[in-house]
Amino acid sequence: MTISGEVLQKFVDIVGAEDCKSHDFELAAYSQAMIFTAPTRPEVVMLTESADEISEIIKIANEELLTVVCRAGGTAGPISMADGGIVLDLSKMNKVLVIDEESKMVTVQAGCRYYDVVQELHKHGYDLPLKPWFGNGVSIGGYINGPSMVGSRVARYGTLNFWLFGLRVVLPTGEIVATGANAFENCKPTMADPWMSANSLGKIWLQSVGTFGVVTEATILMVPKPEVVQPVCFGFDSMEALAQAASKVQLANAATDIEHEDKDIYDLLGMPVDYAVVLSVTNEGYAEEVACKSAIAAKICEEGGGHRLPDAYADLTYKNTANFNFCTAKGGLFCCAAACASNESYPAIYKAVKDTWAKYGIRNGWSCWTCYPNWVQGWTIGYYDYDTQMEAYNMAMFEIQKLTMPIKDSYPFTFEEPFENFVQKIKDCLDPNGIMNPNSWFMLSGAQSRLLEAIELPGAE
Fold first, then answer.
1. Residues 174-196: tens digit of each pLDDT
2. Cα-atom radius of gyration of the chain, to the nearest Å?
3. Under CATH, to which class is 96-224 assigned?
4. 228-404 belongs to which CATH class?
């Protein structure tokens, strides 16, 4: 639906003329995110500064049936960009509001970059527990809404849902709600108790990719700033051996972070290795604790067939995985395909992904986190020539999803029908007009899974 001049003026009245963008050259800047998808074009972009402004905009969007997509950093993965409608740019909502040392919580606006939050916390001797997969530039709102709650340090701290203790959200109807530690004054000490925090509805918005409303503030539990950081790398001849060692390291509580990379990653980064895959184990904390846990991890890896690599590999791996700099390597455009599985199924998924990229001639490397004792999440970092390999890239991405979906314990492309129905009821209740990021709802509703099941691979018998 085309936005009329009258409606556009209403938006100007809310955010001001400078923060209401509708010229072609302005809209072009919002047609693409970090991960390559086909360019799209919103009709208007607004840089908001408060939940009240967002509420007014969304109420008008409901009246006019205009779609709404949020954006702050443009880094948080495959969240669909707006094709027409409204983009809300939250990058001006970038303040660290409260550092509560008594409750060990920090409250920030959703447009705050992860890096800026951490730099402010470091001044007080604290840190955020996780480092988002999409790097230091990701916004806090993007991290909460994005398709992945993991990142480096998940081996020790788990996923974001354990550390998120309060939200302020503008619902798709325009109503403003607060949950958990943000719900009312002086409730942070109570909500810091994990048992009490179960009463918070804030977890609904995790990984919702902007389909359940606009997160404007978040309260996250802090951890002490580490005294020592020590990454170590071990080379393995097979993914099976690496997966077994990684699981044992996690079960022994001998790592803050466990990363898996393959030889192709190091080739892309200009530092080749003589092993098929590499396990990177990082420990952070007090010096004695780090030394003890690193020794345990080293023993497990060496007994499992791992060979310790020079410190230069550990330094390179830690800097790239912690800050997501793989996309700076030479080779072409950046793309990515994800796969998650149990340790038992992980090698099979890895083989399916790598074989498919090779089939279509797409240069790639593999990176993965151990999230839990028996669970991993992997990504391929691919490079291709846009002019000559775009069709091959699209076919490879489709085949990877199709091939990995039926593998035992594979996620996220398997959905139970009761789950789909329940989530759809939540969506219908919160967003009766379906205006909030409808393109991404396709991914969350199970429709993507059903589509993949229905389409046969080219050449399949």
1. 999 998 876 666 665 555 555 55
2. 22
3. alpha beta
4. alpha beta
